[in-house]
Amino acid sequence: MEMIRTLSRRRTSCRNFTDEVLPKEKLTELINNSVWVPSGSNNQPWRFVVITDKAKIKAYSDAAKKMWLENLPTSPHMQQYEKTFRDPTANIFYNASSIIIIYGNTESYWYIYDCSMVAGNLHLLAEEEELGCCWIGEAHNIFADPIVKKELGVPENYALVAPLIIGHPAGKKSVTESSNKRKPFKIIFA
Ligand SMILES: Cc1cc2nc3c(=O)[nH]c(=O)nc-3n(C[C@H](O)[C@H](O)[C@H](O)COP(=O)(O)O)c2cc1C
Predict the structure, then answer these.
(1) CATH topology for 4-167?
(2) Which ligand 1 atom minimizes the distance to the CA of 94?
(3) Which three-class secondary structure state does DSSP give residue 82?
């Protein structure tokens, strides 16, 4: 059992995966462990969609890229990724074997915070298992789309919070601290 301190310092977002598939049991176990977080009013407002079908993952990547290109003028934060969206070979999910999408119940005021804590936990749990994980903001359009939500069986009152990819990392991950340095920040003891 590794210390949280070690895991959080070692974790980096993974963007390179093997083809090895994660069994449903492992994905279920990760999700079951991830929900042991605090939540506003203890509402626990999360629900999950898991996608493991390779063809579906590719189709959602293509649909997300197309959707971003159509909406780039009104999505200035995504304009820096235009080259990726125009590249027919680019997969925004980096060929990961699984996507875990966290949706939150919008009737619960704190749902974005609660579900984001679950997402953070999933990153650490994946690291503990030597799996790779990455939050894919580039999938926020497609998995928030009402038609896609319906397709995935997500009720209207649940909103997208976190699409995460998860799988076996290609290449050995360093077991030392993350090479991704933290920027300086202020701590005010007031
Ligand atoms: C809300 C959010 C959205 C992100 N979206 C993407 C994304 O679309 N594609 C990607 O490759 N990484 C994405 N990331 C991962 C960040 O790029 C990564 O966390 C950051 O560069 C810091 O690196 P590290 O996670 O390795 O410490 C996202 C992370 C967060 C928290």
Answers:
(1) NADH Oxidase (3.40.109)
(2) 11
(3) helix
